[in-house]
């Protein structure tokens, strides 16, 4: 049976010969394919070269236009017109401005916007369309537009004046509807925030129907902003001259994908009713260009695309990228026309390859027979390697030189694998880079019988290498090599390692991206195998594996650094979002980490088993930075709410009220005329009494709106009494409203005149939840996070009486729920992130800092037993930072003793952890934080004994602070 199996199968000679024949076939096919692809790639490279050339030429043309206009704007920045205060003086500069526009035909208008709201513009009337739009006389060549404002910002004079070629005035008008404010325009705002020339996105000039852009710059001395409108209409004609053939498609687009230049005859302008606009790429009618801009990013190489079943090559590159403007060239060529000659050449090559393959097949069969026997013996030796026996000596003699070489190389391979196994274990085992390199160096010295070894790593400083580890080698700590180029590094290392006998073998440490990481050095014995190919290959493998391990560890460290930087960036954004939470996300982690360290170092029985690894500390630090990440979703108008009646609403109501006042003024004037015969004194007294009462009532309402004091029941009753006064409304409250506001109004008709209460709660003040009802109730099946919160009946109640009757602060129950929702969003956001195993507790640590020890907190109503120590630490840190923060505009910062007193009472009420508060006090963590982050006037004496009494903590010995 065994013998039968031994003789079964295909003979090795047949296998080897067949392998040679197949290899020849593959080689022939490969050569043919390579030849095809080389020719194909040559043509593609030529197309790519042409595309780059066209792009560069177009870029050069654009630069000529933009640089000329840029220089003009910079020159005008220091023109005296920027400091002139009146139209009369500004008109003195018209000849200079007109000359500039005549010298540069691309300029359409030159203008100056002043920081007081004044504006002056000189426009060139280039065509009949511009004259028709501006109602200009036929012989007008220039138009002057001016706006002047007083100190209060009110327009005091508008001025339109037309001039002929010689700047002789033709006509003047003062349109009252011309209320243009330059300070609100994008070009003014861009220039106001930039130190250089600002460039706007291209658009269609309304007066000339030319495509152009605006250049603007601010005079830092006067604050005035100079702007010019420059046409880029001629770019399309220039692009038409650049096209290599009729099959090539090209377009110039801006960062919004709007076409600003094209060699095609398609009009680049469309109209939205009467307003001209630029077309998009898909409106150009070239699917290849549309697919190129929608599916590919700008690149310096061609991209292959499938466009409606046809292959195209596309080129997508930026030609201008400055001042937030990114103009890009789209260039595409159909593959069919590109590769016609290559396909014909391929057919000829395949015919010739078939003849050659027939000859090589016969030759391969003969060669296979001569090498099959030695290979059979060699296969048995290799079989031992397949069984992981790397100690077996491999030696097979053959008349074929290559077979003998293969036998020798296989033996070297077995030895290399054996040695490499030990090194691989070290590379993958130790996460510490320094320890890993130390072990690798020791193993290499032992494996190669070297005298010594060392590893150098490239420093962040250019041209500097630092010693990472050494084995029996007296090597300097740093080596200067000029640049991190291997030839310089190699020369420098040979010099400093005293390699006069040339016995130091150096191998570069290069990562996957071919970046130089360092060098591996071995001082070999006098008779070494440094010149042996196998040894060099082995060293290359070792250095490559070591470089990969180094790169992986550095990348892991950099990714961790990047992750924490992004987290801090999010926290900083939340702090910057509102001055009412300024600095909170930054300071809470500092305080929380101080308390964690105190708990770790504490000898109290409560913390005997509490410790944290470096990984757990990092997890806690990340959670602390993310503890309020949900605030990024909190409505700013609620977070920043400073008064009870403050909200976002339609100001048409105030305008209507003013009309009501005017209505009543008219009635009063009428009635006063009728009553002229009555006693004036009694009427005057009654009027004064009424006005004084109104003044007193309004002052009370205004004070109540601030919300700085606790509202008593009698105060609420007085608000209701004041609000019960009525007035007559003669203007409809159903007009001038948004669709959403109209939906809130009752369906009954608005009958005028109507009686209104002075202050009231109306149905339109109620905003229902609708489909936006959050899943935070305990019995909600969509609540998968374990929230346990009560929800107000409606999403928002903006009722005036309801809002003014808030007893404490400015927030209603609905608004307070919206604020508290930030912690719900924190948990949702963090739970959705795929945190690794070492960060799995981040959502709980970050999201449970509003829970209370007695289970009355939110959003889950967790008790102390359900919360870990880090979670309870976060609760104390969050409260203490909020109490002591000195950068909140809505409150005065509390002193250290006041803040600690409030914490103590929260401990007494079982809202904060008693043991952690005790540790917080005794470890002086609060004081260390206060000395760094509190103002000197906030830091006062804190009595530890008094704090413990307030908190209900019994201790044997206390030490006063």
Automatic annotation (TrEMBL):
InterPro entries given in the database record: GAF-like_dom_sf, HAMP_dom, HD/PDEase_dom, HD_GYP_dom
Domain HAMP stretches: 369-422
SUPFAM superfamilies assigned: GAF domain-like, HD-domain/PDEase-like
Signal peptide, first to last residue: none
Recorded GO CC terms: membrane
Entries under Pfam families matching the protein: HD_5 (PF13487)
UniProt entry keywords in alphabetical sequence: Hydrolase, Membrane, Transmembrane, Transmembrane helix
Domain HD-GYP: 731-936
GO biological process, one term: signal transduction
A GO molecular-function descriptor: phosphoric diester hydrolase activity
Transmembrane portions of the chain: 12-38, 346-367
CDD domains xrefs: HDc
Protein name in UniProt: Metal dependent phosphohydrolase
Source organism of the structure: Marinomonas mediterranea (strain ATCC 700492 / JCM 21426 / NBRC 103028 / MMB-1)
